[in-house]
Amino acid sequence: MIKVHSISKKYNKQLAINELSLSVKKGSIYGLLGSNGAGKTSLLKIIAGINKPDKGEITINELPSFENVSVKERVVFIPDVLYFFPQATIANMAAQYKEFYPAWNQQRFDQLKSAFKIDLNKKVHRLSKGMKRQVAFWLALSAMPDVLILDEPIDGLDPVMRQKVKNLLFQDVAEREMTVIISSHNLREIEDLCDHVGIMHNGKIIIEKEIDDLKCDTHKIQLALADPTHEEHLLNQLTILHYEKRGSVSLLIVRGKEEEINKVISSTEVILYDLLPLTLEEIFIYEMEDIGYEIEKILL
Ligand SMILES: Nc1ncnc2c1ncn2[C@@H]1O[C@H](COP(=O)(O)OP(=O)(O)OP(=O)(O)O)[C@@H](O)[C@H]1O
């Protein structure tokens, strides 16, 4: 279990994390979304024990993570900009990981050769961007971490490799309850991979939910009333994230349970009423709009 309690972090005068709290259950896959500069990388580095918050506490399995070797040897962080030792081959890197991570599983590393198919004696710095990322996952998964922290992880992987990596992650989560935190701008990936999602903005988590709940709680509605003068009264009873009028049809993004929305709408005679689910990408855009984040007008 990862617990982040009211942490703040400043870089000079810039507040990157602002009194942020969060908890991630063991064996879950938590997706961290957010605008550029929201503070995702700063948060991940603090959870990984690389950076120290100015205020607040962070624990992994009840132990503080900052400069705590007994915690860090159970946590692997794959950053957005990968680092490998200069001139090191994959085999050299594996030897380093084996030294640092006590749970290193050589058998797994050998088995994963067939998934990644890169020559162990290749120097990592000579590999392509996507191949370097494959090596990062290969090493990380062989270290058998309790917690895997991934900052923009899928970037650079081809579609086949993405699927392989996703399956490997799912396998470790299912079989040994590995906990995964993933920051990404790729909402489709987050939607596929994660069971929980947190949306960050200006150093805070503004929404945190199970992905299924988030999707069940936000709807797209197309609506045309028999008597348009009833619309204002009707809309006042709904929590509206976005409103657009297209001719006589209103397009609404509404927060709330489907049954409750149906109940409100059924109080008026309608010519058209369609309630449709939203993708995570659409939910993200409208939630950001609701808190004042400027977006271009999105045509659905
Ligand atoms: N080393 C640093 N020195 C000074 N400011 C920093 C440093 N790292 C991050 N920041 C600032 O902290 C804020 C949060 O940055 P961070 O990299 O955590 O955001 P992010 O959500 O990961 O962004 P992105 O999606 O663009 O990668 C930004 O305003 C950034 O300029």
What does this structure look like?
- By secondary structure, the chain is an alpha/beta fold.
- It folds into two domains: 2-210, Rossmann fold; 217-290, Dimeric alpha+beta barrel (Alpha-Beta Plaits).
- It contains twelve helices and 14 strands.
- It has helices at residues 40-47, 69-72, 90-100, 106-111, 113-116, 129-142, 159-176, 187-193, 211-216, 231-235, 258-265, 280-290; strands at 2-11, 14-24, 29-34, 55-60, 63-64, 75-78, 147-151, 179-183, 196-201, 204-210, 218-225, 239-246, 249-255, 270-277.
- A six-stranded mixed beta sheet has the order 6-7-8-3-9-10, sandwiched between helices.
- Residues 295-300 have low confidence and may be disordered.
- Bound molecules: adenosine-5'-triphosphate.
- The site of adenosine-5'-triphosphate has 11 residues, from β2 and α1.
- Residues 2-227 form the ABC transporter domain.
- This is ABC transporter ATP-binding protein.
- GO terms for molecular function: ATP binding; ATP hydrolysis activity.
